[in-house]
Amino acid sequence: MAQADLIGVVADAQTRVQTQLSPADGDLVRAVWFDAGPRRPGRLLLLVHHLAVDGVSWRVLQEDLKSAWQSVAAGEEPRPAPVGTSFRRWSGLLAEQATSPARTGEAELWHSVLATPDPLLGTRPLDPRRDVADSARQLTLSLPHAVAEPLLGRVPAVFNAAVDEVLLTALALAVGRWRSERGLGEGTAVLVGLEGHGREEIVDGTDLSRTVGWFTSLYPVAVDPGALPEGEAWPGGPALGDALKRVKEQLRAIPDKGIGYGLLRHLNPDTGPDLARRPEPQLGFNYLGRFDAADAEAAVAEDWAAPPEATETLGSGGDGARPLPHALGLSTVAQDGPDGVRLVAIWSWPGELFEEPEVQELADLWFRTLSDLAEYAERPEAGGLTPSDLSLLDFSQDELDEFESDLS
């Protein structure tokens, strides 16, 4: 069977079989084997409902399946590595955390974040009856290796920043410019709904590294890169560096990477109702991390590697009537391939709220800002510490800048 035909067969089976999953009936897993004959490797299509797995869980399952197969092939009984903390135990700990004084003390923080002005991005507010999964449109773009390599390497290194801090800085600047050009507001702060992996070490003695389940956390942040120096129409040079330092500190000031918001919003009967009444961010962002792109030769050599057609067939599915969580969503992933790393950006939105050229304009502004950041990071004066880098000392950003200037 030709590769294109195989992709079609797998995709058809996925569409058909995923409808058989039924959480209400406890039916969360389906497996389909595609036999390619005695001389070619077949394919295993494994479908698991999102209630039972997240992105990290798939890595655990892949290694466990590989280990089990090797044991069976050798005539041995499979013995998976132990799981440190069960999902059941973790769920109980979250319920306890949600009403603890430390978590309830965060309520004021989340109220202040959600009070950030959030002018409409589209022509109207998000409508849960009209703006559903079936109405979603997507735009997928890639930042090439020549820009992605320094952006994902040099920029975080010289600023001692995480990749998502870099990406969010550029996103806030781009959204601010996009809004201003469309007459949708002049403020510098952008309200963003962030998605994290949710496996935060908030309870001593827990180990979630091999626990399978849905740990994803969602929380709002106010990303404010600050105003441009007077007379500048577009950030460049030191203004970009200052913006990144501000955003980096704002994100690091959030306790435990935002896991407390979901606890107070969904598991605390006292704080939950009030938070539920607050509008959610219109803009959603998720950085999935850095992965090896699917490679045909690697897939043949490694029985349990993701096959080349995985990027064509996997990751879809779900209830078409499900309300979309954001007016505009951005998911990003860094992919290492034969030609180097590239940054893939997937923009999604309800079809009624935006025309594709509008989203393309914002995407281009974001890519332009990322390119400018990568270019600026090559300058010798770029970079520097921020207060969170010296947690044992009490320095302001101005004091750190002056100290580093004296040393140079």
* Gap between N and C termini: 64 Å
What overall geometry do the principal axes of the alpha carbons give? globular
- As laid out across the biggest beta sheet, the strand order is 3-8-7-6-4-5
Low-confidence stretches: 295-301
Arithmetic mean pLDDT = 89
Q: Please count the beta strands (DSSP E, at least 2 residues each).
A: 8
Category from helices, strands and their pairing: alpha/beta
Question: Which range best describes the helical content: under 10%, 10-25%, 25-40%, 40-55%, 55-70% or over 70%?
Answer: 40-55%
Q: What is the string of helix and strand elements?
A: HEEHHHHEHHHEEHHHEHHEEHH
Structure characterization notes:
The protein has 408 residues and is an alpha/beta fold. The chain has 15 helices and eight strands. The strands form two sheets. A six-stranded mixed sheet has the order 3-8-7-6-4-5. It has a two-stranded antiparallel sheet with strand order 1-2.
What descriptors fit this protein?
408 residues; alpha/beta; six-stranded mixed sheet; two-stranded antiparallel sheet; 15 helices; 8 strands
